[in-house]
């Protein structure tokens, strides 16, 4: 038998492969293909950043226009999918997105085209699922680009001037190296399954509350915090009971999550007096004082989306609609330099039982 190497549970601090897509630098910055993610969020469009993630370079003007148009052309969904939604009336947006991604009548002939179609339809699938369940008319988005169109579908329309803030958030959600959903996709891709099946595995993983599903829980407790004393009491009680505080702590970022600080800065510019923002700052300050535990992007992303008039049902689909462009790049990186991912396990059960 080959030598067995034991690693940390959860693969913490274990390097399992090489990637050229994204990393966290020694200084704690999240890098997309070598560029700081926060710089891309500030200076580039969603489409240009997605092009970079997928192709390994920023587009020139002609490439940018073609890619943006290709995404726009692919955002519409087949009418048959809406008929299924009318019958299904699924309340859980992520479950329905996963199902519709699997059932969709794709006509694309190549894997890159297939992936771009999947990349592009999550906004419409999200909006249509919500409206089907609510019995509301379908809402086609309008706007200059992917994130603007999505924002017009899911916001209450009161903060159109902040669509750029939403785009920045989507850029920061786009990629994060070997996170749980991306690793699930790469495990699936390593079997040489098709892109649709691999994306379904990623969507199922993203849905978990320890990965993408923490935003709603953040808002639930922040809504009860009206003062710094409330924040201290909440944190002290959680620490005493050994309970996790959603929106804080990260496997990679031990001192600061650059995405969280960027979104926090965005909120300071557009909503400095927002009650949920002030509550979050109070919790963040006290938790850092007590445990040196930094805020992660979920904390301030939830507050930003709430301020922008986006219902909580859409928070996780926003994450998925961004991260799928990272999954696109990881799928092809895996299959183009592939070895099936099949770890061993340390058996701790009984042996040599008799019947």
Overview of the structural elements:
The protein is mainly α. It has two domains: 22-208 and 312-337, Citrate Synthase, domain 1 (Orthogonal Bundle); 214-308, Cytochrome p450-Terp, domain 2, CATH 1.10.230.10. 57% of the residues lie in helices and 2% in strands. The chain contains 16 helices and three strands. It has helices spanning 37-43, 46-55, 61-74, 79-88, 93-103, 111-134, 146-154, 163-173, 180-190, 195-206, 215-222, 228-240, 258-270, 275-291, 297-307, 315-336, and strands at 22-24, 30-32, 35-36. It has a three-stranded antiparallel sheet. Strand 2 (30-32) and strand 3 form a beta hairpin. Helix 6 runs parallel beside helix 7, helix 8 runs parallel beside helix 16 and helix 12 packs across helix 14. The radius of gyration is 21 Å and the shape is globular. It starts with 21 loop residues before the first strand and ends in a 19-residue tail after the last helix. The model has no long low-confidence stretch (mean pLDDT 93).
The span between the termini is: 28 Å
Q: What is the total number of structural domains?
A: 2
Shape: globular
Q: Classify the beta-strand content into a percent band.
A: under 5%
What level of helicity do the residues show? Answer: 55-70%
The CATH class of the largest domain is Mainly Alpha
Tell me about the largest β-sheet.
3 strands, antiparallel
Poorly predicted runs are none
Q: What is the third-level CATH name, the topology of the largest domain?
A: Citrate Synthase, domain 1
CATH homologous superfamily identity of the largest domain: Citrate Synthase, domain 1
E-strand count: 3
Order of helices and strands, N to C?
Answer: EEEHHHHHHHHHHHHHHHH
The neighbouring-strand order within the major sheet is 1-2-3
Under the CATH scheme, the architecture of the largest domain is Orthogonal Bundle
Radius of gyration: 21 Å
The overall pLDDT, averaged over residues, is 93
Q: If helices are DSSP runs of H or I spanning 4 or more residues, what is the number of helices?
A: 16
Class based on secondary structure composition and strand pairing: mainly alpha
């Amino acid at each position: 038998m080959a030598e067995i190497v034991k690693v940390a549970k959860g693969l913490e601090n274990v390097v399992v492969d090489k990637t050229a897509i994204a990393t966290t630098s020694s200084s704690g910055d999240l890098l997309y293909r070598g560029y700081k993610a926060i710089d891309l969020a500030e200076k580039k469009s969603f489409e240009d950043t997605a092009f970079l993630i997928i192709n390994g370079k920023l587009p020139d003007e002609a490439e940018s226009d073609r890619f943006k148009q290709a995404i726009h052309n692919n955002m519409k969904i087949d009418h048959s999918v809406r008929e299924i939604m009318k019958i299904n009336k699924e309340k859980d947006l992520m479950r329905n997105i996963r199902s519709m991604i699997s059932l969709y009548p794709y006509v694309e002939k190549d894997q890159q085209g297939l992936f771009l179609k999947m990349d592009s339809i999550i906004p419409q699938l999200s909006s249509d699922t919500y409206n089907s369940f609510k019995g509301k008319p379908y809402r086609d988005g309008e706007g200059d680009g992917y994130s603007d169109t999505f924002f017009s579908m899911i916001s209450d329309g009161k903060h159109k001037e902040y669509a750029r803030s939403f785009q920045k958030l989507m850029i920061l959600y786009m990629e994060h190296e070997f996170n749980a959903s991306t690793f699930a996709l790469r495990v699936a891709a390593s079997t040489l399954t098709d892109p649709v099946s691999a994306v379904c595995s990623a969507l199922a993983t993203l849905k978990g509350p320890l990965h993408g599903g923490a935003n709603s829980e953040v808002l639930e407790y922040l809504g009860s915090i009206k003062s710094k004393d409330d924040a201290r009491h909440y944190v002290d009680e959680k620490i005493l009971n050994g309970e996790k505080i959603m929106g804080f702590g990260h496997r990679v970022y031990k001192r600061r999550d650059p995405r969280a600080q960027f979104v926090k800065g965005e909120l300071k510019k557009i909503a400095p007096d927002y009650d949920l923002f002030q509550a979050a700052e109070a919790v963040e300050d006290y938790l850092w004082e007590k445990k040196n535990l930094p805020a992660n992007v979920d904390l301030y992303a939830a507050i930003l989306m709430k301020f922008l008039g986006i219902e909580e049902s859409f928070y996780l689909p926003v994450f998925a609609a961004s991260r799928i462009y990272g999954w696109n790049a990881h799928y092809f990186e895996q299959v183009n330099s592939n070895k099936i991912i099949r770890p061993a396990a340390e058996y701790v059960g009984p042996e040599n039982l008799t019947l």
